[in-house]
Structure formats: C-alpha cells, structure tokens
Amino acid sequence: MQASSLILREEDHRRITGFVERLLEEANGRLVALVDRNGQPLAFAGNLPGVDQTALASLAAGNVAATEGLARMIGEQTFLSMYHEGDQDHLYYAAVGETAILVVVFDARSSLGLVRLRVRQVAPEIAAVLDQARHATREGGLDGAGSPFAEITDDDIDKLFSDGF
Predict the structure, then answer these.
(1) Burial of 104 (0-12, 13-18, 19+ CB in 10 A)
(2) Does residue 2 fall inside a structural domain?
C-alpha cells in the first residue's frame, strides 16, 4: 500500500481527533494514535507517560511495513490488523483505508475483542474523512502539482538568501 500526499484542514483534523477520542473511550484504551504509513502522526488521544508520540508513529509505521513484507512472502497482500501482547499493556494495529494506521494501547481494563469491535466501527468513518481530504488535496492542487511554488528552483532560493542584495 502506497502513501500519498495528504493535507488535513483544521476541520478534518478536528473530526479525526473526535473519532480517535471516541475510540479511546469506547475501547477503554490507554492511548489511541492515528498515523500515516510514512510514520507521521495524524491524531492522538490518551496519554502514556514517557511515550514520544513521534517515535510511536514512526515505529508503528515501520512495524506495519515489515509485517506487510511478511504477508507478501506467504502470499497475502497485507494483514489488516496486528496484535502484540505484553505483560500489562497490549498493542493493536489496524489499517484505515490505504494510507493510515490506528494504534490502540490497552490493558486489562479492556479486551482484544472490545478493541477490535470498536476499531471496526470507527475505522470506516476515519477512512471517509481521509479520503475526502485526499480528494480535496488533489482537486485544490495542494499536492505540489498545482502549487505556486512548483517552479521555484534551488538556484532561486540561493539567490534569495545570498549576501549580495
């Protein structure tokens, strides 16, 4: 699965954050993260002391990418979800559309079944917002193709910031 350019407007980000917060509450999780497949954080809810959100996003995307390589080795296109069981905390990853990943951290106050159910309920809603944002990005020329900055070269930037005014 290939990641594409995506620019989230404030209203899209607010909607996605609302879904992530709802998932945190309904799944009785400790932390929920929505990340893109490039490892960029899109939305977070909850808090785990000492957890770097950027590192979590990067590592989750890397883990999913590695697991997709394993899936292809055995003849699968991808795995739609993954589960890691720890002594006290557990991780559940789920694909959201083509370009995002939901990561849910939960403990004994919840269960894998509840987390899976709640993720399946909210993932299509998040995917719809991301698809709309991706379409708006393409239509609005915000993906770089129609950008007013597309024709600016490195030489132009060097000239702009050179000492010789």
Answers:
(1) buried
(2) no
